[in-house]
Amino acid sequence: IDDWAEVDYSLNSLPAVFRPFIDLDLKGIVYPAGNYTGPPYVAAPFTIPDQSDSMLYLAFSEYFFQTSSFAYYSAGAFNITIAEETCSYFNISTEIFGSIIPEVAKYSVTPYPVMLKLMATEVPIISLEQDSFTVEIQGSMEVFAVLPDSATQSLFTMNITANTSIALNIFDQKLMGSLCLNRLQFSLAHSNVGVFEISLLENILSYILQTEVIPSANGK
Predict the structure, then answer these.
(1) pLDDT for the residue 213
(2) Lowest mean pLDDT among 23-32, 143-152, 177-186
(3) Three-state secondary structure of 68-122
(4) What local confidence, expressed as pLDDT, does residue 114 receive?
(5) Comparing C-alpha atoms, which of 161, 168, 177, 172 is closest to residue 209?
(6) Fewer CB within 10 Å, N- or C-terminus of the chain?
(7) Which domain, by its residues, includes 37?
């Protein structure tokens, strides 16, 4: 598929040939690239509804998405760094954090750019719905101050829980996806600047994450 994952789409059985159609039962197992250890999921059988107004029908099971999530998580694809340059574009710095968190202002008197490191701490859970699917993500985000010599200094780390819904639609003969962030929660995991009230940060961090992360997935 890419540098992160490979897919096994070999046949599970001989094709079933009928007068009006041919039925192909493919495996659809996704592995981390170069690692073919079986994923910790069990494939459940499913059927495609009888329809005859199109030439080709494709059906993807929840198992396919579960193994995809496991493969990309195992390969480290969900580890994201929002670099200093991007944060500077949004004018996010230790001075901004310090204006709402007094502990940061005391810890970092001189304004510095910041860098954000996000990572999934558990395999994202994907559930199929009637017209969409939901993704539950458990992760963490570490905030760094970028010093003049390009060294980084960790300020604090937060736990993140996010729930998103993704709806797929056909537009102009292309498969498009629209992503909606249903829930985004934060909790303080570790701090080098002292304990502070995490709710003070939720608005600004929600804005950063929705602006930076969601458009990268929308429509792809």
Answers:
(1) 44
(2) 177-186
(3) HHHHHHHCCCCCEEECHHHHHHCCCEHHHHHHHCHHHHHHCCCCCEEEEEEEECC
(4) 86
(5) 161
(6) C
(7) 1-76
